[in-house]
Each structure stands twice: as structure tokens, then as C-alpha cells.
Design a protein that fits this description.
This protein is of the alpha+beta class. The protein has helices at residues 11-16, 29-43, 53-57, 64-74, 79-92, 96-101, 104-111, 118-133, 140-143, 151-162, 171-180, 191-201, 207-220, 239-243, 361-368; strands spanning 260-269, 275-279, 290-291, 316-324, 329-338, 349-352. The chain has 15 helices and six strands. A three-stranded mixed β-sheet has the order 1-5-4, with helices on one face. Strands 3-2-6 form a three-stranded antiparallel β-sheet, with no helix packed on it. Helix 7 packs across helix 8, helix 10 packs across helix 13 and helix 11 crosses helix 13.
């Protein structure tokens, strides 16, 4: 990347790290926006859901469906994880109408492994609602009426898909703005101030490109650790860089230790190489996903867990698996048994070969240790 500062520093200043030479005068919002957009025009990431600046100059415009789908997928999930999954979704359901026509179970199955499974249920509900109304609305206010679309996603789709002036603030943009203005209010209390400051520098034109420029800057330059300030297009007007304490922002309170929970799952096998799975309740963690029958996940796992097994059988403990959720650590004891003669599954249970079951990650782990 090139050094592209609003007030470029002499090379000897850069080499010496003399921060006193950096201008402490704030640049105008227009100059900040221009510097970021010029940088983005040269350094935009190539992402499968993005119409980059060169393509836009040639007249291509973003597909609202692809923008919406990517933004939902990217919540709490990395770009590297989302890329191949996004392409699979788009290949299977190339339009919002195609997704709306798909059974919910198919969408939930395709989502397996991406986490935060309520998103998949809302994804399908939103696709149905958009299809019924004849397409995506193009304003934040109307987008927020749709199922599963909150403030952030509405702003992102309005800005990136329709180029509406909408202030988009994700984790990367929070970090950029918190450093740019040295906002010392601890998170999450700083969020309103961060959004207000972002609004101050947000341009009226090229709103979507500006949002993506800020995202790219946070992802590749203004990183959480060891930010690359010398190649940042706005470091010369960054308060945190001027103070030399970039990594102190955003200010975060000390993390509380995650509690531990325990549970048990039961892998019942039949003579056809299939395993018994059941659909979890729609509400709650892993809602609507397939999983092994099991107990609740509580602080203490009691001996009477076998009362919750799908059938009385010769259960053998084959080990345990651990998984980290957002708010707790989970340990599951895994038991295996052969289905006794005459066993009949309930209406919400299915016999599926383990390798064909579309499972969330924690259930994949449990199934994996039952295999020889």
C-alpha cells in the first residue's frame, strides 16, 4: 500500500517516528472522506458480494440480495469463513425469490456451521417478506421493518446496495472512529458517541463506498493489534496516533470469565449405519437445527441424565467434547448405543447417516468421536 496521508509527513519524520510533527489540527470532514475514498479506489478488497470501485465506474451496481445475504452472514463471523459459504448459498439460491421458495429446513441445513442460528430462521422469513413485497426497500426505515433486519443491517444495505446516506458502524468502523477521535468512553457505552462522530465525517455521495472503505481500513490497516499507521490515509489527523496510544482504543472493560455448563448427548445407531437426530426447539441456542438427543445444558450435570436418553439401552460413554459459545463454555458427555429391537422414533426425530447430517459445529464434534 502507498503512504496516502491528508498531510503527508517528510520521510525523515516517518523514519524517526517523531509524532510531534504530525498535525494536531482536525481535517475537514470532506477531506477525511476524500482521502478514504481515494485510498479505497486503489486498495479495495476483492470480495464476492462486492461491486468494487472500478466495476462501479463501468456502470455495475450492487445486487441488494447479495449485499443483504453477506451482511447477515458476516455478523459475528469472519470474512474468510463467509466467502465460500456465501458462494454456496448464492449458487443454490441465486435470487431472493429462490430462497423464499425453499423449505426452511433446507436453509437451516445450509447454514450449519455458521453459528447464531436465529439468523438463518430470520433469513428465510425476510426472503419471504421481500418476495411478497416485490423487492428490497431502499431506505433504512423501510428495511428495518423486515424480519431480522436491525439498525446495522438496514444501514449497511441502504448504503452499499442503494447508496443512501446511511451511517454504517460495524466492529472495524468502531475501532477506526474510536481511534480517530480518541474516544475514551468504555465500550459499549461509547457506541452512541462513535456513531455521532462517524456521522460527522460521512459523505453525502458514495456512501456505500465510504462504508466499505472504513471496513477495509479497519480490517487491514487500523487493526486491533499493531495497526499499520504509516500507511493509513488518515493517520495525520488521528488523535490516537498523535498521542501514540492507538491500541488503547476502543476502550474495553475487563472481560468477565465465561461460566462453564455441562450436558450429555446420546448417539443411538441402527443396523443401517444411521444415527438418530432430532430438531431442536426454534427458540434458544442452535434453534431449529438438527442435533443429537440430550439433556439441558446446566452448571451441574446430574447422574439422572440417562432418564433423558431417547430409549433405555446399553449406553457407553465414548468421551466428551468442549465448545465455546459467546457467553459460556460447554462440555458434553457423549454416549453411544445400538437401537434396541422394536424401538420407534418420535415424529420430530430422523434416522440419518452421520456424514449426511447438516449439523452445527458442537454436534459435529460430538458425532465425530462416536465414529471408529
Amino acid at each position: 500500500m502507498d503512504l496516502y496521508n491528508i498531510n503527508p509527513m517528510p520521510s525523515e519524520t516517518i523514519a524517526s517516528g517523531n509524532k510531534s510533527a504530525i498535525s494536531s489540527q482536525p481535517a475537514s470532514p470532506k477531506r477525511v472522506a476524500k482521502a478514504l475514498l481515494d485510498w479505497y479506489d486503489s486498495h479495495a478488497r476483492d470480495l464476492p458480494w462486492r461491486i468494487g470501485p472500478k466495476a462501479r465506474k463501468l456502470g455495475r451496481r450492487p445486487d441488494p440480495y447479495a449485499v443483504w445475504l453477506s451482511e447477515v452472514m458476516l455478523q459475528q463471523t469472519t470474512v474468510a469463513t463467509v466467502k465460500p459459504r456465501f458462494e454456496r448459498f448464492l449458487k443454490r439460491w441465486p435470487t431472493v425469490e429462490a430462497m423464499a421458495a425453499a423449505p426452511l429446513d433446507d436453509v437451516l441445513g445450509e447454514w450449519a456451521g455458521l453459528g447464531y442460528y436465529a439468523r438463518a430462521r430470520n433469513l428465510h422469513k425476510c426472503a419471504v417478506a421481500v418476495t411478497e413485497r416485490g423487492g428490497f426497500p431502499d431506505t433504512e426505515e423501510e428495511l428495518k421493518i423486515l424480519p431480522g433486519i436491525g439498525d446495522y443491517t438496514a444501514a449497511a444495505v441502504a448504503a452499499i446496495a442503494f447508496d443512501r446516506r446511511a451511517v454504517v458502524v460495524d466492529g472495524n468502523i468502531e475501532r477506526v472512529v474510536a481511534r480517530l477521535f480518541a474516544i475514551d468512553t468504555p465500550m459499549p457505552g461509547a457506541k452512541p458517541e462513535i456513531k455521532a462522530r462517524a456521522d460527522d465525517i460521512w459523505p453525502d455521495l458514495r456512501s456505500g463506498d465510504f462504508a466499505q472503505a472504513m471496513m477495509d481500513l479497519g480490517a487491514g490497516v487500523c487493526r486491533p493489534k499493531t495497526p499499520l499507521c504509516l500507511i493509513c490515509p488518515i493517520s495525520s489527523v488521528c488523535d490516537a496516533y498523535t498521542q501514540g496510544n492507538q491500541e488503547d482504543f476502543p476502550v474495553r472493560p475487563a472481560k468477565k470469565p465465561k461460566p462453564n455448563r455441562k450436558g450429555a448427548v446420546f448417539a443411538l445407531c441402527n443396523g443401517r449405519g444411521e444415527m438418530l437426530f432430532e430438531r431442536r426447539p426454534e427458540k434458544g441456542l442452535l434453534g431449529g437445527m438438527l442435533g443429537l438427543p440430550g439433556t439441558a445444558w446446566t452448571a451441574d450435570q446430574k447422574d439422572e441424565c440417562f432418564a433423558l436418553a431417547p430409549v433405555k439401552a446399553e449406553w457407553e460413554r465414548v468421551g466428551e467434547v468442549t465448545h465455546v459459545f459467546t457467553h459460556f463454555h460447554l462440555t458434553l458427555d457423549v454416549y453411544v448405543a445400538s437401537a434396541p429391537k422394536g424401538f420407534r422414533k418420535s415424529s420430530d426425530q430422523q434416522w440419518i447417516k452421520p456424514e449426511k447430517a447438516l449439523l452445527p459445529t458442537v454436534m459435529k464434534k460430538a458425532v465425530s468421536i462416536t465414529q471408529p
